[in-house]
Structure formats: structure tokens, C-alpha cells
């Protein structure tokens, strides 16, 4: 789940943490060509860091235990968004009748009696869907590995651990076989980017068949008859929406009073309404305490004594940082109370020369943030110009249908700061009408007085794309007037962003 909480700063990193986010600064030393860099973990934070370090002339070794790209490419972001993109095609079918589109052979001629048969529907072959999902993820992993190798980066397939602050021991492993050769890697700079693993409750242990984590759903070959999703954060909401669109009967169990409790309240309310309209059962204020398999059924017990039965259960209850066995404690690297690696805004840990990036730091569980942290770490470690990470400018998307995209401050903080908020409904946009978009809105938040854009929310199709101009405005401290005066295409969904900006205009007073 994406949160806006500030990451605690190591005491040794006070200077870097107080540098203005917009002010590039240079690391403690000039660029050190020929430095030895070892990256442990090949996800977005790791492989982006490796590319930057190689660009700056370092000798780079990347250690990855599963496959280049890490969980983000193989079991998380790429496969989940591929599955969701497939499901999105079926949500578009909702508008077919309204747009005058009929399935071939199913249309009834004008004046003819209505046939007493069920209308044609799409049949989803989940096995074929997941086969494509896995193949695409593998292809992406191979593409990234090929890029790294072309750049001269050494890849060791195996596990890595710190035996000293400047030494990584990598144990090479071949899939399907035992431990292989051990490598002792001396390093001037070490980056840890090992990600997280799905949190497992002792009373709901996944079996990979009926009780599943988010990494295991891509092994399903048949559509669940009834899928119980435990957890209503980003992961739970995305999978619940996707499987409902694919045709499964879905029950979403939420321990909170609404879905997406960490997101914009208006956006979350809209998504919950859409879920219910599409036939999903949403159980609010219902904390799951266990999930038990009984043959071909799974029974989910709730804290209040009720139970929910389904054919499958997806546990989406957060992640646990992969820090065990890395030798971090012996190397003097401090962890947060949640077990994440403590870093500052240039990705330094509490031990000189050791950096960390990605979900293992707990800063923001986003691939884009992981990649940025990895790049920032190498720019800083190798003495290049760098701007510290500013989490207030990070855009985030929930890939439900419609999508929710946010950047900057939210409406609750806007109220506390006396900022102005304008919301424009998306269905009244001419392009939205052409596309039969029935839900969504654009929300802009601007500072009182000078009109500086402080945040925004987009709910609608391709919100992940539409948030970009608002992100540019937030990142570059642009005003509502500047946003409004930039021309948009007519008709376009982005026209509603300009409309919202125009509503934030404050007339000059004589």
C-alpha cells in the first residue's frame, strides 16, 4: 500500500537529508572511475543502479537469486499489470451495447421477436492468459539481462551476503541444483535491493493451489469459481477487480471501513461503488483471522465469528522485507522497527559505502521509486551530481478499472494547509462521452494566493498516463494558471485537467 509517511533518516545522514530536493549536489568525492560496485538484488533498484555505475566507469557485479528484473518483473508488477490489462478488455465490453456494437450473430433485426436464448459471452481461458503473462515476464527479464551484459555488467545467478562492509560473498546457484561456486567480491560500494516477500499469516499458510499469495496466482489454469481476496489495499483491490472482470465471483474482505483506505476518499468510494455494481461482494470492517483448505474449498474465518467460503483465497496482506541472511547487522546496517533497511534521501544506509534501494527500504513500494533510489545511490556514491529523492513528488497508480492516479498532497492535508481543491467530473468531458466513460474525475489542489499546484488525483481510463502533466506541475512548482494556459487537444481527456486548472484561477483585484 502506498503511504505518504516520511522515511526516518539515519543520524549520520543529516546533511544529505536536509539538501533542497531541487538543488543538485555532488557526492563527497569526485567521480571514481574503476570503482568496484556490487549490487545484491536485480530488481528495478538494482539493475538501474548497475547501469548508472557502469556508465560512470565502475566495475559492476550484480547478484540476483531468481532472475534479472527481480519480483517486479517476474512475479509482481509486470505479470499483475499484464493480467489486469487482459481483464480491462472485458470491462470495455460493458459499453458495447451503448455504442451500438453487437456480437456477430447475436443481433435481433428490428421488429423481430426477441429470441429466448442467452446472449453470447466471452469465455476466458485463464490457463492461456497466465501462460502469456509468464512468457511476457520472462521475455522482459531476458531483455533486461541482455542490456546489462551488453554494457559489460557481470551477472551472478545466486544469493549474496555481506561478510564485511566492503565484501560480498555470492553463492552461485543453478535452478534445480544445489549450491555452486562461491565468489568473494571486494567492493568500494555495495547496493542492497532485495525487495520484499508476501506476508504469510501462520493461520493462513499458502499451498499454491487454493490458498495463494500474489506471486502464485499466475499458476492457475482454471478460473476460480469463487475467489475470496483478503486485504483491500492496492494489491487486493487490483486483483479483486481483475478477477471480477475476468468472470470470477469475487468476495473482497476488508479490515477497514472501505477499500483502498490509504487512498483519496472520493476515489476509493467510487471504486467500491464500481466493484459492487459489477457484482463483487465487499465486506467492510471484516478482519480475517484464518484461511483453511477443505478439499476443493477454502474457509476464511473472520474475527467476529462469521466465515466466508470460496474455491480459492488470495492473501494480500502486505509484504516482509528480504533482509534475513544478508549480513546487514554484522556490517552495522541499521533496520527500522518494521525490518526495512534505514536509508536517507540519497539511499545511504548507516554504514559508509553501503546503500539500499527499493521495497526493502520501505520508502515507497513502487518500481519507479526503486529505480530512482538505485540511480540516486550510484550518482551519490560515485561523486556525480544528484538530487535527493523527494517523495512528495512521486506519482502513484492503483490499476483498477477505472484507474486511480495521485501525486503530491491529498485533500486531507490540503484542508489543513488551507489549500484550494477543485474537482471536475470526467463523464462530462466530450472525449469521455465518445468513449462512454461513466465514472471518474480530475481533482487539483493548489496553494491559496499564488496558485502553485500541490497535488492532484485522476480517476478514469489511463489515469496512469493522465497524471503526468500534474506531476510535472507539482515537481516544477507550476501554477494553476500556467497549467490552464497550456493548450490541450480537443477533444481529449486531458482537457479536463486544464478545465480544473481554470477553475482555480484567482482574478486580479483592483
TrEMBL record:
FAD/NAD(P)-binding domain residues are 36-374
Q: Give the cofactor binding note.
A: Binds 1 FAD per subunit.
Cofactors needed by this protein, per the record, are: FAD
The UniProt keywords, alphabetically, are: FAD, Flavoprotein, NAD, Nucleotide-binding
Sites where the protein binds FAD: 81, 160, 359
Span-the-membrane segments of this chain are none
Keyword NAD (UniProt): yes
Q: Which domain of life is it from?
A: Bacteria
Is the keyword Signal in the record?
no
PANTHER family to which the protein is assigned, alphabetical: MERCURIC REDUCTASE, NAD(P)H DEHYDROGENASE (QUINONE)
Protein name per Swiss-Prot or TrEMBL: Dihydrolipoamide dehydrogenase
Read off the lineage from the record: Bacteria, Bacillati, Actinomycetota, Actinomycetes, Micrococcales
